[in-house]
Amino acid sequence: MIMAATSAPSSEFLTSSGLGRDNEQSLDIEVLKDAAKKALINALNSVNGAKTLVLDPTLAGPLGLVTEVALLKHHGVDKMFWLEPGPLTSTTTNVIYLCRPLIKYVKIIADQIKIHSKESLKHRYTLFLVPRTSTLVSRILEEEGVLGDVTVSSYNLQFIPVAEDVISLEYDNAFKELWVDGDETVIYNSALALDVLQKTYGQFPRIIGKGDYASKLATLLTRPLPEQPSVSVDPLTSPAPFDSLIILDRHVDMITPLLTQLTYEGLIDELIGIKNSHVEIPLSLLNPPSAPNPENPGASLPSTSAIITPVLNEKTKKHVLSAATDPLFAELRDLNFSSVGKRLSRVAHRLDEDYKARLQAKTVAQLRDFVGKLGGLQTEHQALKLHTGLSEMLVPRTRTNLFSKSLEIQQNLVASYETSAQISAIEDMIAQGADMQTVARLLCLASITTGGIKTRALENVKKEFLQAYGYHLLPLLLSLSAPPLSIILQNPPPVSMSPSVAVNKLPFTAIRKSLRLLIDDNPEALEELENDISYVYSGYAPISVRLVQCVAQKSGVISNPAEKVSVDTPDGKGKGSASKKLFAHPIVGWKGFEDILSTIPGQTFDIVQKAPAATASRAPSISSLLRPHEQTTTTAIFFLGGCTYTEIAALRWVGRQNRGRKFLIATTGIVSGASLMKSIANDGKRGPGKRDTTI
Amino acid sequence: MDIIAEHPTTTWEAMPDGNVFYRRLQLYTIPGKLPDLDDFVVAGCRNGGPIALMRDSSRIIPVGGTGHTFPKSQIQVYSPAGEGLLLLSWDQGKIIRFGWTADERLVVLNEEGVYRLYDLQSDYQQFSLGSEAAEMGIIDAQIHENGLVALSGSLSLLEVKDWEGSRPLTLANPGLSEPPHSWAVIPPDQNISRHVEVLLSVENTILVVDNLENMDQRISRGPFLRVSPSPNGKLLALLNYNGSLWVVSTDFQRNLAEFDTQTAGAEGPVNQVEWCGNDAILVTWNNLAVLVGPSGDTLRYFYVGATFAVTEIDGVRVIGQEVCDFIQKVPTSTMSVFRPGSTSPSAILFDAWESFTRRSSKANESIRSIRPDLAAAVNECIDAAGREWEPYWQRRLLSAAKFGWGFLDLYNPSDFVAMGQSLKVLNSVRFYEIGIPLTYSQFQYASLMHLITRLTSRNLHLLALRISSYLSLTPDSVLKHWASAKIARSKATTADGEDEGLCQVIVDKFEKLGNGAVSYADIARRAWEVGRAGLATKLLDHETRASDQVPLLLTMKEDKLALLKAVDSGDTELVYHVLLHLHKRLPLGSFFRLIEDGGERLAPASRLLQVYAREQNREMLRDFYYSDDRRVESASLALEEASRMTDQAAVVTSVKAAEKFFSEDKDRSFEAKMMDESARLLTIQQQLEKDSDGKVKFFGQSVSETVHICLVNGMGKRADKVKAEFKVPDKRFWYIKLHALTAIRDFVSLEAFARSKRSPIGYEAFVQHLVEAGHPKEASTYVVRCDAPRRVELYVLCDDWRAAGKECKERGDKKGLEQLKKRCPNSLLSRELEIMGTSMK
Question: What region holds the Vps16 C-terminal domain (chain B) (predicted)?
Answer without folding.
Answer: 518-826
